[in-house]
Amino acid sequence: MNIRKIVFIAAASAALCPAISSASTEGSALDACARAFALRLAPPGAAAPSYKLAYGSSPFGSLIEPYSLAYTFELRANDKKTGLPIARASCSTDTRGAVISLSSSLIAKN
């Protein structure tokens, strides 16, 4: 084999290893944030309310995702009947999908 081919194969393997070996993705991190946010919105002692995620990821996100160190999401909860926002949160996770921080606030009704 040509030495250039060996170097190319080694470089390509090193570049693709994080993409192949990453078990947790942006989606699992988002799910963890959504669950934590739903639990925070629930009254004390009650089960978490059901929720539906509406999320559109960047088409280029999957190319750089394995190299991310953390994820940050801005979440918003809407009233099921009116569709108006009732709460918002900022959530950060590590690459394994564990929630690092979650800060939420209720939106005042006008």
Instruction: Let me know the largest β-sheet.
Output: 3 strands, antiparallel
Gyration radius, rounded: 19 Å
**Total strand count, please?**
3
The total tally of domains equals 1
Task: Output the structural class.
Answer: alpha+beta
Unreliable runs: 17-23
- Helix percentage range: 25-40%
DSSP helical segment count: 3
Strand content: 15-25%
Q: What is the molecular shape?
A: elongated
Question: Widest sheet: strand order?
Answer: 1-2-3
Listing every helix as H and every strand as E from the N terminus to the C terminus, the arrangement reads HHHEEE
Overall pLDDT = 74
Measure the end-to-end span: 72 Å
Report what the structure shows:
With 110 residues, the chain is of the alpha+beta class. The protein has one domain. The chain has three helices and three strands, in the order αααβββ. Strands 1-2-3 form a three-stranded antiparallel sheet, with helices on one face. β2 and β3 form a beta hairpin. It starts with a helix and ends with a strand.
